[in-house]
Amino acid sequence: MTIPPLATTPPLQLQSLPPRRGAAWVQRGFQQFLRRPMGYTLLFLSFLFVALFVMSLPWVGQVLVMMALPLLSLAFMVATRGVLLGGKAVHPGLYAELLRPRPKARQRELLKLCFVYGVATALIAGLSDWVDGGRFEQLHIEMVTEGGEPAALLRDARLQFGLVLRLGLTTLLALPFWHAPALVWWAQQSAAQSLFSSWVACWRNRGALLVYGLTWAALAMGFALLASTVFALLGARELTGVAALPGGLMFSCAFYASLYATFSDSFGWSEELAGDGGAPKDQAPTNGEA
Predict the structure, then answer these.
(1) What residues contact residue 258 under an 8 Å CB cut-off, 6+ apart?
(2) Residue 142 — pLDDT band, cuts 50, 70, 90?
(3) How many beta carbons lie within 10 A of that of residue 237, not counting itself?
(4) Which burial class, exposed, middle or buried, applies to 4 when counting CB atoms under 10 A from its CB (0-12, 13-18, 19+)?
(5) Report field, pTM of the whole predicted structure over 0.70
(6) pLDDT reading at 139 higher than 80
(7) 18, 55, 97, 250: most buried by Cβ count inside 10 Å?
(8) Any residues with CB less than 8 A from the CB of 140 and at least 6 apart, and which?
(9) CA 166 to chain centre
(10) Total Cβ atoms within 10 A of residue 72
């Protein structure tokens, strides 16, 4: 599958990657984060700050935040590519650059992606809430309320089915949107074409994405277990949450910093590593037509 490129960029060729590549993406995410820890942190925190304000708006707040998530992932990918190619600074001003009309068609397609993602996410949330009868929201309340009993609520069959439905539909929605913002931005694809190309790329490299997801889950659980064990040994179990905030922030930034690696490897566009617009030199993927 050959993707029409920008005139100033190499063509994108869909790759078939081995499953172990997923673990390499996680490693590259942490490497990128450590190159610009303050920049990536500010990029993420600025999004959270605006999101908290927008979510206070009645009716539309949560939907608007969901619409902005493709912009968040694209901002991190643009920042990561800038660091790889020229050691550029990472700063919150990247969000404004993404919305600057140059050309307008690219921003229009990007905004279409944001709109579709926000609406689809709202529909998934609405359907899941209807299925579990509001038990998911009740679970949130039980978890943050002193003396709450989330364990008892988790045994509810309707909540369990709602959680499975929510997770399954969210995963299915993530696949077409995984590479779509980057394909609109760098390959000038339309919103519809980028969603299709992203779906094909994710399906072809589903093994690598599965390892990628499992690696992140294992690292997150391992960090939580380590933090709780250390503070328990110190006799300060109540301080476990103190480590959770910076740890969660680091993991979030490293995750978003790894997204460019998943895109560049999946479409054979890693000129910062190969020097000629091809795949990384340490990788021998198989080109495919779809």
Answers:
(1) 25, 26, 28, 29, 30, 32, 212
(2) low
(3) 13
(4) exposed
(5) yes
(6) no
(7) 250
(8) none
(9) 17
(10) 21
